[in-house]
Backbone:
């Protein structure tokens, strides 16, 4: 039985509406192969990259450019002495190419947004570099379905609480919809909202977290399944 009354639906962007993290994973694999060819010990590469990102994000934020800095820093730390000095520049070029990747919107997203926008108030809520996220939103041609677009430096309980206060939303009829327990689900629930968790196999490692057990949590297999509930 679907929800009949109008709701506030806050919808994540990256890896909820369109592909995102898979491009970064492909670059990471290519860079690891470069290290292997340079006869580097790559066993700690991914762990060190994740730790570098955790350290840098609070200082420099998200986005492809900041990821590139973390990737090059980690690569250089593991590169053996005497390796080809042009390799770090190759890594930088591989990573920054993500910015030029064509938009790949998930199947059923435009149709689902078109349906939901006639029944509920939709808000796009994403985090990251404002310029990069704005460029992706323009390329997606989906902005017209949303009443407003929020590009946040971080998604946590404080920022969700601030959104609720600024927009005057009632938590009991406001839902955060996304693929990340860490950024989309758990902090929204903690702020008094409800949430729809749509797991995605390629969700970024740093977003991994167990979703909270909560009566206001709904889990769906696909974005298009929202039409069955809202």
Residues:
């Amino acid at each position: 039985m679907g929800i009949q009354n109008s709701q506030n639906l806050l919808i994540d962007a990256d890896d909820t509406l369109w592909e995102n993290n898979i491009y970064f994973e492909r670059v990471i694999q290519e860079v690891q192969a470069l290290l292997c060819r340079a006869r580097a010990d790559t066993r700690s590469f991914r762990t060190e990259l994740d730790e570098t990102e955790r350290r840098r994000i609070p200082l420099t934020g998200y986005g492809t450019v900041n990821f590139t800095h973390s990737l090059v820093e980690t690569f250089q730390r593991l590169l053996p002495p005497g390796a080809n000095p042009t390799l770090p520049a190759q890594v930088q070029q591989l990573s920054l190419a993500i910015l030029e990747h064509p938009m790949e919107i998930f199947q059923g997203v435009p149709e689902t947004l078109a349906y939901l926008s006639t029944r509920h108030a939709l808000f796009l809520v994403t985090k990251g570099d404002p310029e990069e996220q704005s460029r992706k939103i323009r390329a997606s041609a989906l902005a017209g379905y949303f009443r407003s677009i929020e590009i946040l430096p971080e998604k946590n309980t404080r920022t969700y609480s601030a959104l609720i206060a600024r927009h005057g939303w009632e938590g009991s009829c406001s839902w955060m919809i996304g693929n990340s327990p860490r950024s989309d689900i758990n902090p929204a629930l903690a702020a008094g909202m409800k949430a729809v968790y749509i797991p995605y196999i390629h969700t970024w490692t740093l977003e991994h977290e167990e979703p909270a057990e909560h009566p206001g949590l709904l889990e769906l297999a696909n974005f298009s399944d929202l039409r069955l509930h809202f």
